[in-house]
Amino acid sequence: LVAFRGRPATICPPTRDRRAFEDALRWAGPTVTTSAGSDVGAAIDEAERPLVQAGTARVVVVLSDGNDTGTTARAAAARAEAGGTRMAFVGVGGDRPRAVVDASGAAVRGADGAIVETSLNETAMMDWAAAGHGIYVRAEDPGAFSKVAALCREASIPNRPGHVDFPARSSLPGVLPSSAESAVRSSTSSAIWNARPARRAKR
Questions:
Q1: Contact 139/176 with Cβ under 8 angstroms?
Q2: N or C: lower Cβ tally within 10 Å for the chain?
Q3: What's this model's pTM, rounded to 2 decimal places?
Q4: Angstrom distance (rounded) from CA 178 to CA 98
Q5: Partners of 89 in the beta sheet?
């Protein structure tokens, strides 16, 4: 589990220990990393950094609103795919701009004093998915996480690039719905979560 803003932070490495992952997920929040920005490329590189056992499929799932302040997300996705990683991008957020708030609930203001707003940038996320030969789904769409689970199942099929030679528990419990969790037990997955402060409706 990688949380990121301007810089990424691994709060749980790839693991089959469900309890450890769930503990890390409960601890995750906007204060995990305080660096300004939202560098998706750095987060993908961070998810790729841990070594995994030979023969293990690697699936990286990026949860973001697509607003990237870095410049390497597309290249990072392509680099990960070239190394055998399967990529899935999950868009979180709405089409209408919403105010960004900090951990206390106060509106975040830019250098000019204006309230910072953000909305889902699907164009960017679909571009990253295309660069990584992966998939893009919108979190609120029916069946979105079933598609992510299907990607994980596909990665686990023998004789396919990045297949799994042994059964493994998913490292995504708590991120995927329980109905999808059972479908990803045969892949070692990493979730990348944007630790941007929560958003609320524009006032």
A1: no
A2: C
A3: 0.75
A4: 29
A5: 62, 136
